[in-house]
């Protein structure tokens, strides 16, 4: 299989000089008497920055962790002249790691092997000389075959050093005949060595050799032609090769090419990671002279992740560099220099490179992946260095008081002549009581400017700190001279929590809930249920999808699928665990049958059980069945089981069906935790007395860092957050403490307790055992407060300790958390009690939604509008602040795309020029005009929006018959038809004005192509087939329907909305099946309940209608708008019109809700569908258009049989701030292009002006989630009638290029027509000007007018040239004929 992957990335600019990343970040906070951790990498950007403190007025101690810190220097005199190469091999004993390091050195013509060991961040200084290699040439690579054999590559030889016998055996190998520039030596499976060579231009060869009693036997040879500069081999005949600037992954007969183009001189580095401790993936780095590209390749699904790029200082790659990388860091040595960069998992940090250093000649660096340490080995010295993310840590204050002090951080860019930059800080202590609302960040410096139209979300969650904060917002403007505040706008505050889903199960008892995420946009809840009446067990699986857009908070969750599955294996559950396995792409659910001592593994696909695997606890897991299982956890291929009596941890490989050997002494396992997103390669164990971090090294589980618990704890809760780890402890003395360990300190062998944050938890008592959960950013823990209230405390680690609290009336049995990883990261929290399951949505980012729709133009331009935010928790005093906001009506600048228009050569004196402005202008254009220069007269003879016909009087509704090319229209007096071919209007019939209150609707019936108009009153609604055939709806359907509001018809389906007199915003929506073959019939298909939705408008939705094939399913419905735009009621039916009318419904009408992605601050006035639906096998995709008085929006909706999904891309159509939008419509022009038009109203005295604007072409294929659509052209129309509610103008897209308002028919185009009268014998210029209120551009059109009566001489010369050409051609043919007589001597004559 060949898979081509095209990967697009954005180049991150390499910054040499030091610059500040965040100017407003000038306050740091520490809890009273606690240390403070400041992330330097988030403050500064630059190359190889070094940090220091200046102007420190405080005696508090601090430590700076630089990007690379020197741990220790050792004098290790090797008595050699050069250190050539190195190799490292982990030796695991009792789950502890010791790394054996081998150095290949040279003294004159002799090569030596030296050995040392690394353990616990230290090097054994007693280097051991293992042996000498004599009579060898060009020894340049060394590797471990296994713990007992070292392999050295020399010219024509492989040398095998036996660590046990101290002997060396030489094996002859194939040596290439081409010039070798690049070498690779790699060991596989502890018995095979791959030796590879490349000349870097045209030849590459790789040979595998198997070790047999010290001798290497050739097995396989692989050759490639072309430029090979990168090669790395792995087990199962899999390898990466960088060939001809294309990176390929080859595995047996499967080849995957990722078409990423690099320069011809690029080098490859790979690191094999183990995601979730079992799923293989590779961290890949490719460098050239100026660029580092990093990405992940997942070998299980053969996919490459999105690349992350960093620019390099220009480096010399004349020699093959030494490359090292893992998921966190990338290290390169070239010549006598080495540099350190952030790895793929640290891509959000902006410092690049982290570190740069020159080392002595003939020296070597070795990157120890296990500990992120760099060993620099020279001929007489070794130094061990720690790679960090740079942070500044202030120790705990020596006095237990709140104190503030100032200091300055200086960052020095060592790659740019010691360029410095500074960040000034005020450090403030915050009360440990956490009761009072306190200032956090200084938000008074926020300054917001809104373009119109625009919606902005202003994050104010970091402005205040404290528990249970509620927010109130308002606006005011200080009017100079009056001294008063005036309310001028409306703003929305997004609260901290939102109840999204509530489920009460009256029958079942909920025992367990597990939550797992298959990707950031989908997740599944597993609920273990028991029916108390019959003790039957069930597993409920609920899948959710998330939809969110960038510019505002509007997060809703749609229950996509839910099912209750009757377990088909008779078990009694005592433990449950679950996981979503990406390796096999299915869900695994693990249950424990305590009575039968068996473990049942249920496999699900698409919420359906597809397999069941049963393990015998005694035989398969070697567990005494009398022991009790305390915990089951599944992670990737490994099943973790904690049992008691004796207390031990058992690990089972469910893919290979075997127990995993794990010999760790002194284990007292209590509970396992894992955070897939933040610590994918680690398992955390609550070991009763300490926290143990497990890692996998060479396929074996090892013990990494160990964090001792400061006090004896009878209950522990652990939160594994992205920035660090929380440990909550409850002791038998009743004291409760929370400890926070920054990730920077987490994996150090010895943690300085001065840098650990410790906070007493408000005299709270934990619910035993502790109920807690965590995500990447938040730690949740349930506690009983002194007043016996139940509180859920939520802690966030942003290098500072922050928290908020929720109150509950009852305690929960478990908490499940999903991290929603979108542009607005938040958590979804599931709470489970005995019979309730509630989900809350947690925002730390409290936000103000600013919408220019509610800002009065003019006042904002004074730049003195203030947003006042009051933060309160009813304790002592509130905290309030304000910040300015302004609105600008500046339109986007118009720019030129093409510089010139082709010269117009004309013979006629009167002619037209067609110009497509999109080819020459870019930006939002309000108007076009033409100016002449020289001897010509020019004017725009047809605008993009131009007059075609005027209606008198105004009309209410119109429709079009494409077959008859007739327009039909109605007002409250008459129905007329307009013939497009003759430009004539004909009266069809008149209405009885005394009988009806309104005639709002007309449509053309599909079969007859005849118009049907509707008039209504307070008694019923009446259908006019013509002037004589009039039917009431009661006579047609049996039920009178008065007060018709509006209607929509398409392909036999008629949907009508009827107002109710007594209630505002009350519409009854009816769906009818309309036929007119022999007679006219209307059959009611669906009727909504009386005012159930409080609708004030609606529109018809075409989901899938194909009237030419009535045997096919026809699907249509309607969507409405209520005062609450958080959801839109959406109904649809699917019909089969080929069946009798009694069977017209295919299934029950679907009554769904579209969850809005628009802010609640928007007051919509209309809704419609853009374009035609796109039909897929299992869903239809439609585009919705929403309009308010100042904004129009559009997004895509996917309609499934029982659910709706919103595509999270949003269009905002640019509109005026000083004119109110009346309507926005869409249709297709004559070229088949989708067109959107808006109409705006402006009243000046008794005069009414309407501005009609056409938008630039668009689609939803744009990067990001938000796009503003600009004007292509606007045209102002004058109306004789004043604007009243009764005569609300409407806009209707008819056919091809025709648009109809209630008074005008207009023709639209994408081109301007310019009429020119050019004087004879002249050259002249036309300027086409494009403008808006703030920008102006022009296009120059050169005109050359050719006069025929002055070109007789030209014509004579032209005629003579033509005659001469003919003569020459004839002569050539004649001579050629003569020459061809003797073809043996001469074939042709060249003229």
Describe what this molecule looks like in 3D.
This protein is mainly beta. Among the domains are: 85 residues, Immunoglobulin-like (Sandwich); 88 residues, Sandwich (Immunoglobulin-like), CATH 2.60.40; 83 residues, Immunoglobulins (Immunoglobulin-like, Sandwich), CATH 2.60.40; 80 residues; 32 residues. The chain contains 3 helices and 116 strands. The strands form 30 sheets. The chain has a 5-stranded mixed beta sheet with strand order 1-25-24-23-22, with no helix packed on it. A hairpin with a 2-residue loop joins strand 24 and strand 25. The two termini are 57 Å apart. The N terminus and C terminus are likely disordered.
In short:
With 1391 residues, this protein is mainly β. It has three helices and 116 strands. Among the domains are: 21-66 and 392-430, Immunoglobulin-like; 448-495 and 849-888, Immunoglobulin-like (Sandwich), CATH 2.60.40; 895-944 and 1313-1345, Immunoglobulins (Immunoglobulin-like); 963-1042; 1351-1382.
Distance between the termini: 57 Å
Task: Work out the helix count.
Answer: 3
Tell me roughly what share of residues is in helical segments: under 10%
CATH topology description of the domain at 448-495 and 849-888: Immunoglobulin-like
Per CATH, the architecture of the domain at 448-495 and 849-888 is Sandwich
What structural category arises from helix and sheet content? mainly beta
Rg, rounded, reads: 39 Å
Query: What do the pLDDT scores average to?
Result: 76
